[in-house]
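Input.
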Amino acid sequence: MSAKVRTCLWFDGRAEEAAAYYVSLLPGSALQDVFRPAPDGPALVVDFSLAGTPYQALNGGPQFTFTEAASISVLTRDQAETDRLWNALVDDGGEESMCGWCKDRYGLSWQIVPEPVTRMLSGSDAEAAGRAMQALMTMRRIDIAAIEAAFGGS
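Output.
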């Protein structure tokens, strides 16, 4: 991997498993390199990319765990992609949170953000954006149609 900068994610023995799971979620993602100190042993470092963004997974041990202070944010095209990714992350041990945030089964936080919602929230109509934001604040998985209805004043 030639990227000068990448985010390192700390795992307790499940780095390779997590990296393989993450690359299965997003098109344009791939496992790059796996470093094993012993040929038949577990991976210590796994380099991978998610939709072209470089990451590194480290089997560092139990000393540190993920918090919501850091997350992976994914901009989705539409409701179908939003739902697919959200469901993949929260199913099988993940956890829902508010406003498009969730945790995966490894405890890593994600923000699943539909691109149409970002347009509404950053538009020039502050009143409509405020209504859209109010609708967003009541949601776990983001419902684009409900936010569009609030944005339009319905």
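The chain is about 30% helix and 25% strand.
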